[in-house]
Amino acid sequence: MTRSFPRRRSLVVRLTAVSLLIALASIAATAWLAVQTTTRAIQQEQGQALSGDATIYTELLGFAAANHTWDQVGPRLRALSEQTGRRIVLTTVDRRVLGDSGGAPVTLPVKATASVDPLHVDPVLLPEAGTSGIDPRATGPFKLPPAEREDLAALAARATACLGAVGLPAQVRDSPSGRPQLGGLDPLSARYFASKCGLYELAEPTRTEQAALTSLNDAVNRCLLSQGADPVKLGLDLAILDAPDSRTAQGCLDSVRREQLTPYVAPPALLFTLGPGGSQLPTFTLSRENLTRILAVTGGVLVLAMALTVLVATRLSRPLRALTEAAEQDRPAPVKSRDEVGYLAAAFNDLTARRERIEEQRKEMVSDIAHELRNPLNVIRGRLEAAEDGHLPFDRSLTASLLEETVLLQHIVDDLQDLAAADAGRLRLRPELLDAAELAHHVAAAHTDRAAAAGVGLTVEADGDTALVADPVRLRQVVGNLVTNAIRHTPAGGRVTIRVSSTVDAVTLAVADTGTGIAAADLPHVFDRFWRAEKSRSRQTGGSGLGLAIVRHLVAAHGGTVTVESEVDTGSTFTVRLPKPDHGAPAAPDAQP
Predict the structure, then answer these.
(1) What is the pLDDT of residues 362-385, one digit of tens each?
(2) Cα–Cα distances in Å, from 509 out to 285, 457, 478, 482, 555?
(3) Alpha carbon of 332 to those of 344, 346, 359: distances in Å?
(4) 291 and 435 co-located in one domain
(5) Are 116 and 145 found together in one domain?
(6) What is the pLDDT of residues 280-317, one digit of tens each?
């Protein structure tokens, strides 16, 4: 029957829930990002970063850096208003009007467009201010008087002419303080001609600059001493020379520069930029209509995501449901795709086929075991019943026959126990150093009587160094099983030979006979359990059919291999190849394969 799963555990429900959560989170994140980005863009449009208001802001900062009051800012405001098309109002921090580009009085917005303070500049709006936040156009006491400007201009002209004569053209530009600066020079070449062309003389501070620099340097050092830091020396470009704690020194420098420049710059002011006629610039508001539109789009996306998820989940769950039904009904599953589910179904079918083969093998094995045990039990029961009925004398021959059948039963049980231990991985080995040739002689001696009774000759041939590490009991069992099997299938007058030889990395034990041989078609099955070349169950040749299967397991446990070569009516050769010490042989006692 088809199994029903709880709805909350259904693949369709779980995939749908996950997809909806992902879609909802994506929509929310996208909407938030869109609103934030749009708001920021419109705010920038209102005067904080875009070109029109940036021009106004930069120009007014320059005015404030060069003037200590806002008294003459009116003409500048009107010129900027004509240039940008904006109405510009400048007020103090407490909203007192300092200047207006013109027009009827207006109500100013709550929030100013920007704060104009040359000593606290946003580096984003004016990158030239650097990390100090001080407008470089604010020079204060470093501003040169006309006489010093003329002297430096003459020095700059002579230096430019000298450099031009040696093929180094230079451009002269004035810094905010009025000091001429040479640009466009290669530093290495300029250093080479610096002395000849008077570049060092041009770089010397003037009297005005030296006085301002000394005053600034003394104030910075006082600041550093109050913080327990070492004094520093400033260059004309206000670079800090030999400062062990550059962060502390830079902080003192910025603080002292603001104190030094405060009397020379205009006080902070608020800048308001308005639209034509004094109207406020449009602001971004999320209206009810816009909100409804966003919610409608969000709902549509969610519905679409749900539909697609249900469709995909249904297509995914259908083959899985078919696979579940096939497993419950113990039948092959249909393979209709070449994706992961299709591969799973194919693997399931392979597993089902292997399980069926194993089940058939199990049934055959149980049948074989029952047959092997039934034969000696039937003999024992029949003879005991005949003896009890008086048909057979209860004498020594009867007890000997019953003992023989009991030993056969014990042999079958022991073989089954060995195979069960091998299958469960509990077949223990106790390896030790031994001589394979000596072991072969012991096995031959133990089977001499059986071979003689069957009229079969049994010999041992050994060659080379046949030392190896193995479990002597188990290895004797391997060779003994092979010799027993060879004697059983060799007619009277034949011979069985145990050959022991050696190579660089292995020892080989081969048991060869001149018996009936095995057909080529039967060779792949000789090591199968309960397999016999004769297909009848009469056990005319004796044995349980487990000896060669045990040989294969024991040899594999030693890390070796066993092979067979045979020809009908000529004989068979079973070859066991075991690794020598240091070539993969087991080395520790009680090794468990």
Answers:
(1) 776 666 666 666 667 777 788 787
(2) 96, 18, 10, 10, 11
(3) 12, 9, 16
(4) no
(5) no
(6) 655 445 557 766 777 777 777 777 777 777 777 777 67
